[in-house]
Design goal:
Blueprint: H1 3-21, H2 24-27, H3 33-36, E1 44-45, H4 57-64, H5 75-89, E2 96-99, H6 101-113, E3 119-124, H7 129-136, E4 140-145, H8 154-159, E5 165-171, H9 183-193, E6 198-202, H10 218-222, E7 227-232, E8 245-249, H11 251-258, H12 267-278, H13 281-303, E9 308-309, E10 315-319, H14 324-333, E11 336-337, E12 348-352, H15 356-369
Parallel strand pairs: 1-11, 3-4, 3-5, 5-6, 6-7
Antiparallel strand pairs: 2-8, 7-8, 9-10, 10-12
Length: 371
Amino acid sequence: MNNIDRRQWLKSIGLAGTMAFINPAQLLSNDSPASYGGSKSELIKLNFNENPYGPSKSVRQAMNSTFDNVCRYPFSDLKELVKNIAAKEGVTEDHIVVTGGSTEGLRATALTYGSGSGEIIAAHPTFQAMLNYAENLGAYVHRVPVNEKMEHDLEGMAARVTNKTRLIFLCNPNNPTGTLLDKEKIQDFCNSLENKAVIFSDEAYYDYITEPEYPSMVELVKEGKNIIVSKTFSKVYGLAGIRIGYLIARPDIADILKKNIMAMTNVLAIAAANEALQEDDFYKFSIAKNMEAKQLIYKTLDRLKLDYIPSHTNFVFFHSNQHINELSSKMINEGVAIGRPFPPLYDWARISTGTVEQTNSFCLALEKVYS
């Protein structure tokens, strides 16, 4: 089942129907957070957009059965994963670059296009891993403020393009705002500018999009456009801790990027990713539980009359009406960690979805803080 089919399935069946036939016990190990809701004495970590339900039982079993191979380099195992990813994305294998988490792909791209005097254009705020790394390499980053809807200002970004521009960075859905660009506008943007600079589409949260037939920019890669797409196993698949992601790009671009991959990945991560790609129930379960947690957060923010951005991700960005450092300190005192500051929006806060139990704890803590 491809990503679009999964989103159509989710919208058609509804949240209640989803959870009615997916049995968490069949998907999760006994010591998974979903089994007990987390210890009340421990800090509830809702600050890094992690999937608290993963990895699934079958993925853990796949990793366990691979331990005998950790004495081997991952090259031969990697070939199977590349084949499976290519099939999933509908491209040939020479389009795929497997990375140690999507962050390595971001940094390899920064090394490729940002070294020396390269110029990069990006929204502000957005995910900073590539941008900060590029600045350390001597690049100049044009940060274009998001618009009043907290969306990328595509017109403002296009106006910054010059003959010095080497890369345009799009995080869609965006981190930390959770916004999703209009599908017509982003396609027009990419088509009109890909001949002037490489466009990087960070789609770490693509799986959480529920808008029907929302396109991945992989479709433009298939047309031979000057575009790189980044995806990850860290979010919906719950594999943030073992670091595996991938890039999809035209083969000549992929070959260049491969030369700047440093950490790569490992046999356990490869086994986990291969199993995750085959397992559909946990994928659906993770998305459904994420939707449930977001609804709990929305209802709490509505009660507290705190504005927020409807999210296409596994986090919610809300207007805290107080400095994020003050709110973070208060929430830590209540046993909940929330997102870091995202300048210049210091009176906004990002909260990741946790298990239903963890999210309920956040809601109670937030109401206490604002009472």
